[in-house]
Amino acid sequence: MSEVSSTAGRRAEDPWSPEEARTRFRAGWRVPTAGLCPGWTQANLLCLPREYAYDFLLFAQRNPRACPVLDVTEPGETAAALFAGDLRTDLPAYRVYRDGELVAEVDEVTAHWRADLVSFLVGCSFTFEAALLAVGVPVRHLEVGRNVPMYRTDRECRPAGRLAGPLVVSMRPVPAELVPTAARVTARYPAVHGAPVHVGEPARLGIADLDRPDFGDPVPVRPGELPVFWACGVTPQAAVMRSRPPFAIAHAPGHMAVTDARDAEFQLP
Amino acid sequence: MSEVSSTAGRRAEDPWSPEEARTRFRAGWRVPTAGLCPGWTQANLLCLPREYAYDFLLFAQRNPRACPVLDVTEPGETAAALFAGDLRTDLPAYRVYRDGELVAEVDEVTAHWRADLVSFLVGCSFTFEAALLAVGVPVRHLEVGRNVPMYRTDRECRPAGRLAGPLVVSMRPVPAELVPTAARVTARYPAVHGAPVHVGEPARLGIADLDRPDFGDPVPVRPGELPVFWACGVTPQAAVMRSRPPFAIAHAPGHMAVTDARDAEFQLP
């Protein structure tokens, strides 16, 4: 299940710049991006035809915990204000959807690109992981070198136009005594999903088995730890799967756009 | 210049509910709404034809300080999730624009309503005035019973689609020693414009004369006070005037939609 290649060197004392990481992704390197380029903001990608752009922007306005929009391109544009690279090639992996069905998981989407695609960059919780580590909250998927586990919940997002779907969450096991700290620290980052949406009872979110995430990899929850759930930027992809727009491109879950924005820009005063 | 009618009773110890205030507005009462229904969130209104709705939502995403969107209706809807009244009649005053020109300022817009209008409720800085008063920061327009002064600046918003225009700001005179407090307190309310955008030098914003606001009433700036400027939800109207969509309805500046949301919902943790 793990999609992780060697992590050697990527969290060295001299970490790569976003441009350096993007150059490697463009060359075909494929790896979950958690922990990469610390201090630089990572983002979910969703590209939809212009005629769906209003529905998605409204969906995001109505579901801000799951879909904090950081940037929006003009139709057909391949760079964004926060992303100086090429959106078609500079993420580690992409998913292509037709009528809501996953039709390809690929390293680049140049051949799939269309002039009417509007690209949305949506905040990603990887952004606050450095802040969690800084206050002593462990981040299990970094420790074990896996992709973060993500789950479809039974919570419905507020629909918008033709788009509807379930809330998707990411999960990090947190020692019980550090749960309040984790909530407090991440609450300061509302543009990257903010405080947790749920603590400790996966069944209450409709999650039957933590060891079988819908996206990403399972990680161990150890004695004395609670599973803590944050709204996840894969929620837009779940809406695509449910709502079946004719065409969409997204990042492969956990394989994010590394932007040129600094994490600190999305931290509250 | 003042549009203020008697304020007797409206800030009594038993203040009106939003529904009570809306009932009075529906009956024709016309008054700036600052200080009314304390604890209840007030909002700017902009109604645009559906074909302009994406441009405006994108304009708001790109200019979040000036245009924090709190709620969006379906086309033609006359109520909103946060506003149980009738958007056509339950604000104290409206402005109607055709091709960017102000063609009417009226108490209700039933005769102007169209089935394709999408209504946007945008956060209003009146929401944080109770928090300012609570920490001892005076609010001059409340003291003198006037509408808040608002000014077009020479700062351009980031354009979106067919919409462009200047940043509009509201101004409150603040004693110099309380400026940091005013900044700190209002920073906790990003959904209603948040921290000030400028302090003390109106000319640096392209404001020639504080005594001649573009919207609302002038208020006195006293010795030892600095003019403090916050991004203002009249910015969308300035974009309408500049960009000339075929039709738009907005609140009359300072005459807001009193919503059913609580101020505390928009305060940061």
TrEMBL record, chains A, B:
The record's keywords, sorted A to Z, are: Lyase
Q: Name one Pfam family in it.
A: D-Glu_cyclase
- The yes or no answer to whether the keyword DNA-binding is present is no
Supply the EC number(s): 4.2.1.-
Say which enzyme class the record assigns: lyase
Q: Which SUPFAM superfamilies match?
A: PSTPO5379-like (SSF160920)
InterPro entries in the record, alphabetically?
D-Glu_cyclase, Putative_hydro-lyase, UPF0317
GO MF annotation terms: lyase activity
In which family does this protein belong, per the annotation?
Answer: Belongs to the D-glutamate cyclase family.
Specify the protein name. Answer: Putative hydro-lyase SAMN05421810_105146
Originating organism = Amycolatopsis arida
